[in-house]
Design brief:
InterPro entries: PGBD. Residues 141-494 form the PiggyBac transposable element-derived protein domain. This protein has 519 residues and is α+β, with helices and mostly antiparallel strands. It has 15 helices and 17 strands. Strands 7, 8, 9, 10, 11, 12, 13, 14 and 15 form a nine-stranded mixed β-sheet that branches.
Amino acid sequence: MNSTKRLYPNQPTHWNECAEQFEEDSDDEGGDMTNDPENLEIPDSHQSSSEESDAPIETDSGDESDTTYVTTEDTSDEEPPKRRRKREPPLERPEVKIFSSKSGRQWTTEEPPKRKVAQANITKQRSGVGRPATNIQTVKEAFQLLITQGMTLLLVRETNRQAHRVIKQWNDQNPGKEHQWNETDSDEIWAFIGILILAGVHRSKNEDLDELWSMINGGPIFRATMSKNRFKSLLRFCRFDNVSTRDQRLKEDKLAPIRDSWVMFLAQLQICYMPGGSLTVDEQLIPTRGRCNFRQYIPSKPGKYALKIFWCCDSSTAYPLNGEVYRGHHPKTAAAANTNRIRDLVKRLVHPWINSGRTVATDNYFTSAELAKDLLGLNTTLVGTMRRNKKEIPRELQSYRRRPEQSSIFCFDRQLTLVSYVPKKGHAVILLSSMHHDKAVNNEQKRKPDIVLYYNDTKGGVDRMHQMIQTYSCKRKTKRWPMTFFFNLIDVGGIAAFVVWITKNPQWNEKNDIVDAYF
């Protein structure tokens, strides 16, 4: 019985049968098949491979069922068998909750999709000194940019006018005892301002003038600058407007006694310095016991009676940029009936720097969702704390004793983000941001959200300015509120001039550690 080897292990059985029949036909014809198209020739390569192959041998017994096969497996290391990849379990998405506030605003715990940086977060201006301050060399030159010649000339004119008016009344009432007023000028006014600043540097604002001009305890610079009586006369007659027309102007403007100087001062503040990317809006209280119809009474403050000024400052340098004096409540007109006075106040303070990609930091007195939306329309973002009784805050963000410490709850409403952070048990801090749009938390700093960390870095602009003013204030004791206001202008101008000068000269403190020596 003939046996034939398979060319390949996987060849079918009938291929061998065809091969046997082909060999029988070829033997009968004498092996000449070149002219017969029906006869097929097997290539030599196939034959040799067939003979040398180690494939299994099939025995033909005439019955296909008796055919035995030996199956060989490919054990080559080059092509390992494909394994079915394990299916990874799908990530579990956190549960999305929707919170409703009393105002009807809907908040969701789902983060908004990631987008490219918004135009409101791109700062389009560089910080630094303004064009008028590019050529300054000393702090005095920087200070004279803020307390301008126009302000000193106004002070000279109105001081001389008030002195002549008072002395004329005295001479009319006391014939034979006439007094004469020696008119002041700009140089003397600058010397007057310099004595005030020097007394503040020595922290002698509350010291009696007799002590400052004393031969034993006083400084010689005070006696060398001007006499004590002349300084007292300037303090007495110092005015900033025409007293004879003041009553008429007071009917329309409660700040009439100091309005002209205040307007000129604010204009110089805005052109001498360009702020950075963060601004701070807050209030400053100027203690005074003077008679004033818009004076505030705040019993929790050290100075219970004070004038209130709202400031917009640079967060990094505490430079004062813009201010507005609180003058009490005004009766609302028909046009102003639908407006919010606090929201409008913040927009007025930051108006010169809108559409520049800056961020405004406010406390809970100013922050609201409506203000954040209005500023976003001006390419300006807002970060600030909120009071718990605001209608925009959902009930789930309030403080509960069951909430663990250092935990945070985030919720989003389009471009606004609200976060409630628990620094200690039973107390929650709520912040609103139109700058942040994620749930980023810093685990190294008590798991505080990035919104809280950013607010802590930028909230202290006005407070730092007020702290420096209190340390080296030139304010003297007086019962006339315009003089209290003027002393504060000198203090704020000194801080602003120092910031401009150190920005222009960043190497100022390489060999010196005492800051007040430069004042």
